[in-house]
Structure formats: C-alpha cells, structure tokens
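Annex B. Sample input.
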Amino acid sequence: TNGVHTSGTANAAVRWDASHTYKGLGAAFSNDFSLKINPFEVSTGRADLKLNSDIIAYLDNGGFHLGNVFGLIPIPEKLPLPDVNIAYVKLKNGDTVLLETNQSGSDLQLKTKTGQPVKLFIPALKSGSTIPSFDVTFDITVNTSTWSFVSGGITVEAGPGTSLLDLQALLGIPIKIQKVSYTKVNGSYKFAADAKFKLPDALGGLPVDLSGLSFDQKVLRDR
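Annex B, continued. Sample output.
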C-alpha cells in the first residue's frame, strides 16, 4: 500500500521560524493523497495550503514548495508617505486589497490595477473635516517589515493652466499646489510639492514658482 490516505479539506497553519506562525489556513488534499509512515513523506498526490483563493504552499512527493507566501502578509489599510499624518495612500477597502501584489525578492511589489487608480490623501492640508485627496497610479516596491519604500515613487500633477489645490480657498494661504510627489531625493524618500505663490498686489501680484516644498504634520515648508 501507499500508507495513510486522506482527501477533502482541513484546517492548517504555517510556521517557518519562531516569529512567523500563520493560522487560519485551509488544507485541500487531492483524491490520491497518501503518506508513507517509514520514511514519513508524501507518497502520492498533493496537499495545497490556502488562504482564501491563494495557494500559500503545497506538499507533494518532491517536498514542501512555497507559493504566494505574500498572501499571508497583512496589507495595511494605509501606506504612510512617510507618516499618515502627512500623507498616505489607501491600499484596502475593508478586507479587499485595491492593488496587485507580487513578491519581489524579500520585498513586496504594489501596483495599481489597469484603469483603477487608488486615493492619495494629504491630512497635512486638512481643512476642518475635509482631507484633500487625489487619484494616483503607481508601481512601487516596499519593505514588508517597515512598509518603507524600496523603489519607485508616487506623483500626481495638475494639467496645463490648472492646479491640484488652491490653499487660498482651503486655508487662506495664497498658494496653489501644482504637483505633489513621494520620491527619492538625495538618497531618501520625501513627500514634497511644487506650487505657485501670488505676491501681494503692492509687489505686483505676480505668481512665484516654488519647488520642492516639504511637509510637516501641519506645516508646508520651503525645503
């Protein structure tokens, strides 16, 4: 005989070191799945370890094989840029992840789906209960321990003759935001804006271009 036979489904968990144990998985056994007792190994068939529809790993006569182990990683609702009090991207709607996720070495690629932008929120420019938000698309890679950026960036820019945000109307500041970005600057990631500032009428009322404005939690600063 081929040993112990089983089929159907069961509850399962995966543990690959002392700090990474994931419960709540399901095991789906093929109809021909069987185990040898001596030596203890899979004789025939296959067992899939699944989280919802994702195959996290599977076991067969060739051993234990990793699948989409990044399906185990709990995706946060908000991706900080670099702090959620300054700016963030919404990654989830309830339990639904809004982007494509793919393993990239030891990191995780986050990519917006074709024709499905996600929202960038800027709490640093909040007025009352209104948080400015914009549709964005991107292809980035993040470190899943810190959720800091490894590569890529996020940028949104106004079209010709328009602005993203008029801070005169929002905060009483004579500045119009033309572009916001979270990109690598001099080796580190920075959330910044390009804007136009209107001089007082006594000085001609001319617009002045401002580039690379940085953000604190409640303050827009010139570099």
